[in-house]
Sequence to fold (291 residues):
Amino acid sequence: MKLRVLLSASLSACLLLPLMPASAMEGGSKPLTVALIATLGDQLTMVYKRPTRASQVEPYTRRTIQVDGQLLNYSVLRGLDSAIAAAEPEAQRVMLRWRPSPELTALLKSSTTQNANELLLEALVNQLSQIPQRAGWDRIEAIVPNYSWVEKDGMPRNIGGIGIFVQPVGSEWSIEDEEGVDRTAEYKADTYDTVNPNTGVKGKDSGFVAPYIYFDRLTIDARTLQVLSRKPHYANTKYADPKSKSIDVMEGITPAKLVEQLTTLVEKAAYQSVRGKVEVEVGPVKQLPGK
Fold:
């Protein structure tokens, strides 16, 4: 099954009702009310690293896949809701749903990095201002995509929101510049921490498939709509099958597995944007020397 089809799978109807803690339902004092919203949109970016024959040419190709934005937003909301429930167990949570208009989506795609961030925030605040129920809320926690030009952690520049980056095995490349000089060694990929998609075992590889998400978590005063804080968060997981004999690293992970890992990454990132990396990872049991 293709990636597009899997990401466009229909969701069960989701009633956006207040999630009320038990103490509030038992007649206690009015709890703090926090509204949650995610605006990742319906565009998934696929970025491929490719050989280049000229150093001034960006060695990436990009294409956009139209997806069911609510699938991704719902994963974010699950993570955000779990984090707020853990951090503020007495709080009442209200989950909101918003889909940017086609006009806004087109405008964001044609805008610069800084303009895109500000345009999206302006549109979100305008949408929230039309919800009269916010008069009874205390704050709004919003996840909005961030657009960045910075290269880091083996990932390309000019990526934002949510997507998948594919870096082929560096040793397979043969690269010459415009003068015919072999530049293969200069472009050979570094080795990065990876995860085997079939076993979960960690390793190191130069070629990988990496779902990623880059977003800001905004804390907004529900009544004045003033942005109280804006915290960036970035996450990716690089998958590589060391036993795969294929040059195409995409063949090392099935589309179904990739979608599963993408939604898991999104949910976990939203949770960690509030709670930090509080999970404890348990590795394999090792025999101690002399035991």
